[in-house]
Amino acid sequence: MRCTGICRGRGVAYLAVEFDLRDQASEVRFFSHSEECVELPIEAYHMATGPQDACRYVAVVPLLDTKRVSVEMRQYDKEGSELCRARKVFSRFAIKWASRFNYKFSYDRAMAMRDIDRSTYSKQIHLTPQVFVEAPTKRQYVIKGYACLPAGDFAEFRLLDGMGRVIETFDLSLGKVEESTALGMPRREVSFTLRIPADGSTYCLLATSTRGNKSGFLCLDAAARGDYAVSRSPLLYRSAGLNEYGARALARKKLLSSIDANAYADCAGPKFSIVVPLFRTPLPFLRDMVGSVQGQLYRNWELLLLNASPEDEGLAAALDELDDERIKVIDLVDNAGIAANTNVGIERAQGDYIVFFDHDDTLDPFALLKYAQKIEKDPTLDALYCDEDFLNEDGEYVSPHFKSDFNIDLLRCHNYITHLLAVRASYAKELMLRSEFDGAQDYDFLLRLVERTTNIAHVPDVLYHWRISDTSTAKSAGNKGYADEAGRKALQEHLDRCGLAATAEGTENACFYHVAYEVADEPLVSILIPNKDSVKVLSRCIESVEQKTTYRNFEIIVIENNSVQDETFAYYREVQERYDNVCVVTWDGPFNYSAINNFGAKHASGAYLLLLNNDVEVIEAGWMSAMLGLCQREDVGVVGAKLLFPDDTVQHAGVMMIKCASANDNAGPMHVFSHLDRDDPGYMRRAQLVQDLSVVTAACLMTKRSVFDALGGLNEDFVVAFNDVDYCLRVRETGKLVVFTPDALLYHYESFSRGADTLDANVERFIREQGKMRSTWSRYYVQGDPYHGPASTAVYYTEMP
Question: Which of 149, 318, 542, 674 would suit a FRET pair with 339, their CA atoms being 20 to 30 Å apart?
Answer without folding.
Answer: 318
